[in-house]
Amino acid sequence: MVAALAGLALAPATAPTPGPHAGLRVSYIESFTGKRAPLFTLKDLQGKMVKLSALRGKVVLLNFWYSTCLPCRNETPDLITLHSQYKDDGLVILGINLDDVMIPQMQGRELTKFLMNYPIPYPVLKGDKKIVDDYRGVPVQPVSFLLDRAGIVTRVFWGAYPGSIYERAVRPLLEAPAPAGPGA
Q1: Measured between alpha carbons, how far is 147 from 37 in angstroms, rounded to an integer?
Q2: 145, exposed or middle or buried, with CB in 10 Å at 0-12, 13-18, 19+?
Q3: What DSSP string describes 116-171?
Q4: Whole-angstrom Cα distance, residue 116 to residue 34?
């Protein structure tokens, strides 16, 4: 009994508690990490087409969210700060809004209200069923994908995270040299 209790004392305090969806989380993250992110073309809120492939050479954070998601709302100010701090260093944040998929009956009203409270300075793209399917159903919101300059997923953030966690993951990618182009 004492040995068992001693073993518990050595367990890290920050170790995640296995929940009912722990297996889904692990398999989801592993299915993307180290692989090229699925490409997409989506419209931003002004109707301009944005292609993920056009962002090669940049560090990209794809943040899937929807307007009435409380964890999504909670992390938005930190993402805005991250964007402000690192946009000139090659970081691109794309907010992929899933209101049309998650709450289509609201017809964009919640997104409009959200943006009045949080004027997001980075592109907000209108997600659709195809991108949800391409990203294996986006089983939790928010979920964010950090891509290196070659478009490879280096980390998947399952759920909301504070800005300091994103910053620690982004900085080394920004400091790494850009990959050589095809003609180099």
Answers
A1: 7
A2: buried
A3: HHS---S-EEE--HHHHHHTTT--SSSEEEEE-TTSBEEEEEES---HHHHHHHHH
A4: 37
User: What's residue 135's pLDDT?
Assistant: 97
Q: Please give the Cα distance from 24 to 180 (Å, whole number).
A: 36
The distance of Cα 109 from the centroid of its chain, to the nearest Å, equals 23
- Contact between 149 and 178 (Cβ < 8 Å): yes
Instruction: Check: pTM over 0.90? Answer yes or no.
Output: no
Summarised one tens digit per residue, pLDDT across range 33-64 is 999 999 999 999 999 999 999 999 999 999 99
- The position carrying tokens 């930190």 is 78
CB 125 within 8 A of CB 97: yes
Q: How confident is the model at residue 10 (pLDDT cuts 50, 70, 90)?
A: very low
**Sheet of 143-147, strand order:** 124-126, 91-97, 59-65, 143-147, 153-158
